[in-house]
Amino acid sequence: MESVNKRVITISLILALFTTAMVFLYIKSATVKTDVAEYIDVYIASKTLPEKHEITAADIKKSRVTKEYLNPDAVLVEADIIGKRLKDSVIEGEQILRSRLVQENNYTLAYKIPEGMRAISVNVNEQVEVANLIRPGDFVDIIAIFPMETLEQGENKIIELPKSETVIQNIQVLALGQDMVITEGKDMELPKTVTLSVSPKDAEKLTFVSEFASIRMTLRAVGDEKVITDNGVIKDDVVSDKGVIVVPK
User: Fold this and answer.
1) Dihedral of CA 23/24/25/27: which sign?
2) pTM for the structure as a whole
3) Each residue of 86-99: pLDDT tens digit?
4) What is the Cα 181 distance to its own chain's centre?
5) 66 within 8 A of 40, measured Cβ to Cβ
6) According to the model, what pLDDT value does residue 4 have?
7) For residue 36, what pLDDT is reported?
8) In this structure, are residues 44 and 61 in contact, taking their beta carbons and an 8 Å threshold?
9) How are beta strands 149-153 and 193-198 bridged, if at all?
10) Is residue 122 within 8 Å of residue 210, measured between CB atoms?
């Protein structure tokens, strides 16, 4: 009888050890699974975003995903997303990928035009372009110089004297020739054209004066956004009539 009891005790101990080992292995396995299911914060689109859209803070939100569902190309830093533009559309809930963002050094001119504005180019020479000292990002005014015109109106002859007038003010320079960015230290050749950012109405004005008048650009000081009211200048505004002699016909 004593032998039977010893056998029962031995079997119980073996079963207890086995059970303990199984519990230990289960806990260890669960811990490993927990480690594998590590969560990472990633940024996703809070709504569907169109192609070429400039991303704002309201366009994205943070989401937690496991490594298994993290796209290797996902951008994990918010500052690397805000202000960037999209190469193509991104649907709501989609992770923001680095390959879908347009890097600033790859921006074409269309990306640099402010909303509601138009880009228009004008031919220039050294005199028009302020001795080749204007740079992309600067702001300029446009002065138009109109020649004298003689018009017939019924029995009357109307003479319009030569006149210069500031016709457009405070417009941004987008590019000089093909250059939208000027590399420091690079020799800058005189461009043949300057591309400006203007409103649709100012685009019409600039087209008109480029065709029917000669133009000059005046460079604005940094931060000067003041718009003046001016009726232009004719010869009498520049010089007096001193030295003028009237001779009868």
Assistant:
1) positive
2) 0.65
3) 988 999 999 999 99
4) 13
5) yes
6) 53
7) 55
8) yes
9) unpaired
10) yes
Q: Which two tokens stand for residue 223?
A: 């931060």
- The pLDDT tens digits for 143-184 are 999 998 888 888 888 888 889 999 999 999 999 888 887 766
CB 171 within 8 A of CB 198: yes
Encode pLDDT of 8-28 as tens digits.
667 766 766 777 767 777 776
- The yes-or-no verdict on residue 32 having pLDDT over 60 is no
Strand partners, 152: 157
Q: Which two tokens stand for residue 102?
A: 């347009």
How many Å apart are CA 232 and CA 128, to the nearest integer? 18
Q: Which domains, from first to last, does the chain contain?
A: 39-106 (3.90.1210.10), 110-238 (no CATH)
**Residue found under tokens 């031919």:** 123
Which contacts (CB < 8 Å, 24+ apart) does range 119-123 have? 119/174, 119/195, 119/196, 119/197, 119/198, 120/195, 120/196, 120/198, 120/203, 120/206, 120/207, 121/193, 121/194, 121/195, 121/196, 122/193, 122/194, 122/196, 122/206, 122/210, 122/215, 123/192, 123/193, 123/210
